Structure formats: structure tokens, C-alpha cells
């Protein structure tokens, strides 16, 4: 079940947000639970295990930014959306990896788009592939894959926790992942854009400091794909 927290100290604003979210989750036929909080203190005293947080920024004592920092310290995967009447805190929102920033008065269409984008992001986190060997099948979530390497007839799936090897074609894997945040950057590599730290004309450096080759023929397309990812997904 989808769990959503809404923290807003103005009751009319809070109820309006709840009504819009209820409307579109019902249309999407998503089972859900919405919990309302009237201030940051109340939110901080709760169990912080929600999938999506909608946070007002300007609240007494504990601000939305302060609450987001606390959430991030114990919940890396949560989606945080700020709602504010001013733009002044946009850069601070980036510091806590906010998913989006909605200005008041809340526009229903804007909130709908942000909500549905958040649902898509959550669905992506649940996607997986199956690595099949003679002796076993291994379930690998896409969010855990940093890059995929082809060596002879084998694939090496480099995850955040292990390297998993099995016989499979890199081309076939590319087709499976083409709609997700993966890019075929070289004849021997597919990279998860989520883990890219930097790149130059020869190498892509990942967040764990591993380096993989980027083909000169793929460099321009990779650059465009990565910029698009940062703009639309990697906030």
C-alpha cells in the first residue's frame, strides 16, 4: 500500500492538497493511506516510513527543510515534494534531493503531474531482472545495478552489493532496459545513469569511483541522455 504524508500548518491548504491527491489516486486505482500532520514537530514524532512526503516549508519551529533533512538521514528512498509560497528555498531543496517544488497557490494540474511522476518513480524502484544460471535464478532490482559488462559470452552485473555473472547477450539486455535509466555507452558496457558521477571523452566515473569506457561514437548521445536524466529524474 502506498503511504503518503502531508505536512502543512494551514488547514485549508492541507485539506485542498489531500482532496486533489485522493482524487487522482482513486482514478489510478492505487491503494493508499494518507496521514496529515499540522506541523514539523508532529511529523518528526511519527514513524518516518512513508513513500511520499508533501512538505510545507515555512512552518514554526521545525521547517519543511529541517524535516526533510531528518527524513533523509533515515530514509534515503523516500520521495520529498516541497510546497511553498516563495521560491527562495529551491537550492536548499536540492540539498535534500527533493523530487519537486510546487508553488502556492497549488495548481491542481501541477500537483497531478508531480503525483503521477512520483508514482512512476516508485514503480521503477520495484523493477527487476532475473539472472539465470544452471543452478539458480537470481532476482536483481534495477535500482541496485550500477553497470553491466559484457565479457565473451557472459554478462557481469555490477550491483551495489555484488557482481553476478551469467550467460546472456548484451544486446538483449539493452532491449530490456531501453525504457529505464540505462544507456549503452560502449560495445561492452551498459551504465545506469543514476550512478554516474562524471565523465570525459574516454571514461564514465561512477559514484563508487569505478570507471567504464564510453565510446567516442556514443559520447554525444550519452551526454544528451545524462543531461535529460538529471533534468527529469535525478533531482
UniProtKB/TrEMBL annotation:
Residue ranges of domain Response regulatory in the record: 3-119
InterPro entries associated with the record: CheY-like_superfamily, LytR-like, LytTR_DNA-bd_dom, Sig_transdc_resp-reg_receiver
4-aspartylphosphate: residues bearing it: 56
Residues in HTH LytTR-type domain copies: 129-228
Pfam families in UniProt: LytTR, Response_reg
Keywords from the UniProt entry: Phosphoprotein
Alphabetical list of Gene3D superfamilies matching this protein: 3.40.50.2300, LytTr DNA-binding domain
SMART domains on file: LytTR, REC
Molecular function GO labels: DNA binding; phosphorelay response regulator activity
The protein's role, per its UniProt record: May play the central regulatory role in sporulation. It may be an element of the effector pathway responsible for the activation of sporulation genes in response to nutritional stress. Spo0A may act in concert with spo0H (a sigma factor) to control the expression of some genes that are critical to the sporulation process.
Protein name (record): Stage 0 sporulation protein A homolog
Organism: Clostridium muellerianum
Amino acid at each position: 500500500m502506498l503511504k503518503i504524508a502531508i505536512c502543512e500548518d494551514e488547514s485549508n491548504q492541507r485539506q485542498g492538497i489531500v482532496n486533489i491527491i485522493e482524487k487522482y489516486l482513486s482514478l489510478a486505482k492505487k491503494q493508499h493511506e494518507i496521514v496529515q500532520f499540522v506541523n514539523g514537530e508532529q511529523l518528526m514524532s511519527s514513524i518516518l516510513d512513508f513513500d511520499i512526503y508533501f512538505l510545507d516549508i515555512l512552518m514554526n519551529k521545525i521547517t519543511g527543510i529541517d524535516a526533510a533533512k531528518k527524513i533523509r538521514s533515515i530514509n534515503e528512498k523516500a520521495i520529498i515534494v516541497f510546497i511553498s509560497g516563495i521560491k527562495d528555498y529551491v537550492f536548499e531543496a536540492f540539498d535534500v534531493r527533493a523530487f519537486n517544488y510546487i508553488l502556492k497557490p497549488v495548481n491542481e494540474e501541477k500537483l497531478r503531474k508531480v503525483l503521477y511522476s512520483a508514482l512512476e518513480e516508485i514503480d521503477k524502484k520495484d523493477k527487476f531482472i532475473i539472472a539465470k544460471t544452471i543452478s539458480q535464478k537470481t532476482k536483481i532490482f534495477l535500482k541496485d545495478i550500477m553497470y553491466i559488462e559484457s565479457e565473451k559470452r557472459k554478462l557481469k552485473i555490477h550491483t551495489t552489493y555484488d557482481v553476478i555473472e551469467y550467460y546472456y547477450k548484451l544486446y538483449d539486455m539493452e532491449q530490456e532496459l531501453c525504457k529505464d535509466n540505462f544507456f549503452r555507452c560502449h560495445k561492452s558496457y551498459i551504465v545506469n545513469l543514476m550512478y554516474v558521477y562524471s565523465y570525459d571523452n574516454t571514461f564514465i566515473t561512477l559514484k563508487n569511483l569505478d570507471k567504464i569506457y564510453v565510446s567516442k561514437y556514443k559520447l554525444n548521445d550519452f551526454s544528451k541522455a545524462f543531461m535529460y536524466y538529471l533534468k527529469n529524474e535525478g533531482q
